[in-house]
């Protein structure tokens, strides 16, 4: 085992910061999750209550507070804005790449560590999530680290041929428990569920030969419990069990039913991983099969990663909700296996499979065509309006957004990456190919986030959010009408209501209101509210209709 280079760590951290931090605030937060979580953090600051989560100033028991604590700190530093809401995940991106470099170096050598970091940072969804304001990047990292330290515990206790494990088994069990506690504080008990399922399948794989000491397992649980008690225990002691009880009930419902709009086909998560984790997903395929192992621990760690992949994907296939976030923990084993393929090919310990280059070229070409099509369609979008039959979509497409044509450079870059990468694969220049694919894909995402996404967002939600921003500081009520959105809360900087009637849509529409009410609805739904004569239409823009009801209007 080689010692990680400090210079490489610093260079990798700087590289990650350069890719993840710029342009965080260039585009509005997206409904629902990004705005939902940012609003929870804003209200945490507003109410000066850091033990209980609120949204629209009502208790929100769907998530624990860890990520909201991070966002709140960022908002105190940078203000209530998009940059602050996404900044914690940019930091997570930097930390994750450094962690994977350190883990990979510890497992094999510096080359493998760098490959694993590049594979994660240079794949589509893993990279994009570090530019988002959602919970999963930190949750996935904590869960992975908990499992990683338990693997080290297993090796130390059972005498695996791995140098560098100089601590007692208890040390690794404690760190595993700490990270498990942090994972639970970030998203809930699903972390422990996945962890225990992976351990259970590993136990079956080893023909029920126990690989852990009962006292060490108890220590792991005690440490995890103590970490989570920093919130569970404090909240219960301060306010009683109601909030925690509702939180646990929600966690149960989450796994037993699917929410509206979250159902999908049976193989949903496998398709999402194949496309969303490009190009790592395709390079990982050969590593799913047997290879030549140089040590017992090498074979064992690969087994752990395969088990993590299958447990996550099968578990969330069984769960009825089909959400991209659910299988995102599988990005760790997928990128590990991609790095493993390149590492073995480079060392001539595994034969390169030509089908990988073919599949990568096909999927990379499709992605490039999609990126080019976005620009071509955008330049001609108004000519396409008559062929679209959805009224709201037609109005979206009529938005006045300037496209120069230079946006197509993002798709062209993807074409170059595909051509250069496949040529390097054919020449067996595997390290160069890995750099081309992963650094190149990271650059494509970087440019897309800076050039394409802000313009696409103007077609979808920008008009409504700009209207909400204009209401900041105005003594009024603002509500979405006929659809659900968290934007009226976050982007108006809503104050805590003093009139409980303001939560009731019927009162806002027909009641004896005490201040003006602004409504935002969609062009295909506005006719449903024509019966309310007190509503005055202000204007329409990009598919949204903006209405106002004055005090005293009947």
Automatic annotation (TrEMBL):
Annotated GO MF terms: pentosyltransferase activity
Membrane association type: Multi-pass membrane protein
Biological processes per GO annotation: lipopolysaccharide biosynthetic process; response to iron(III) ion
GO cellular component, one term: plasma membrane
Keyword annotations of the record: Cell membrane, Glycosyltransferase, Membrane, Transferase, Transmembrane, Transmembrane helix
Xref: InterPro entries: LipidA_mod_glycosyltrf_83, RgtA/B/C-like
Name of the molecule in the record: 4-amino-4-deoxy-L-arabinose transferase-like glycosyltransferase
Native source species: Chitinophaga ginsengisoli
